[in-house]
Structures are given as structure tokens and as C-alpha cells.
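The instructor's notes for this session suggest beginning with a concrete chain rather than abstract definitions. Hand out the sequence below and ask the class to guess, before any prediction is shown, which regions might be ordered.
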Amino acid sequence: MTVDLNSRYGLTPTHSEVVDACKIIEPCTALDMGCSNGRNALYLSQRGFDVTAVDSNPGAIDMLQQIIGEEGIANIKAQVYNINNAKLTADYGFIACTVTLMFLDPARIDAVIADMQEHTLPGGYNLIVCAMSTAENPCPVRFPFTLKAGQLRDAYAGWEFVKYNEDVGTMHNGAQMQFATLLARKPD
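After discussion, reveal the predicted structure:
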């Protein structure tokens, strides 16, 4: 039985889309982009993934490194990284980017997605969850970036869609918001 490290360290639960993705993705090299304090990275590491966890917030990375040290976790490498740079240096079988894009520089989104795709191994997966703002569902939060209808799907033309939707959901604070959710497999 695995210990719920997120509860132990007061972190929010693992993103539900990461949990679902792990039902079909075999453990491999994984990148958690915008990892914050490590809620998804810890979950992935406990399932046998070799995880690189990156975030631009040094305090969040310090907290994750403290958890890694206290728990003796050998398969997470946490580091400060500005995702806007779009300069990944390694390739991964799984890249998760959940509720991260909306905090990035809007002018860099295309480059960030292209960099994720380029650094995904053939047959590997990208998971993205990002807020949207559409005429029907304007985003109630003023994020620096929100997706338009079909934008994320179009960015992954040529990939195999395991899951794709643009559904309205309820945030933990009760706000209604539309999200694009994509789990796509890169062609071999």
C-alpha cells in the first residue's frame, strides 16, 4: 500500500487527469511542468515513473526537494525552470502540464507546446489541462492566458487523441469555468 504523501505534507490531491492517465500509461520518464509543491510528481514517482518536476517558483521546488529528502525518494528530480523559455533539454515518455499554461506568457504558449511535442518520445504522451475563455463561457478569472475553442486540439493535429474535451467544470472554490483537457499520444 502506498502512503498518500500529498495528505502527509498538506498538498492538494493529485490532479484527476494525471490519475486517469496513469491507468493507461506505463511507467516511463515523465516531466511534470509547473509542478508547484509536487502533488503530481509524488503520485507519478510512487507509480514507478522517473520524474523531472519543474516550476519557476524556487519556494515550491525547495518544498518538494525537502519532501524528496525526508521520504528518501530517488526517482524525482526537482528543479527551478522557467517554462516560458521553451528550452527542454531531455526527452520524455509522458509530459503532464495541468493548470499551468494559463499562468504563462501568452506570447510563448505556441513555443511551449511545440517544445513539449518535440521533447516527447515517439509513442509518448502529453497531458494538458488549461482554462478556456469562449463567448459562451467567458473565463471568470483573469489569467494571463486562456485557450480559445479548438485551439489545443488544432495544436495536436497528427497526434492520436486518447481524450479531448472542452467541458465546463466547477473549481474547488465553486467557480464555473471551461477547461480544455487533452491526453494525446505522439505517433511512433
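Then share the key points. The first strand starts at residue 29 and ends at 33. The chain has one domain: 5-185.
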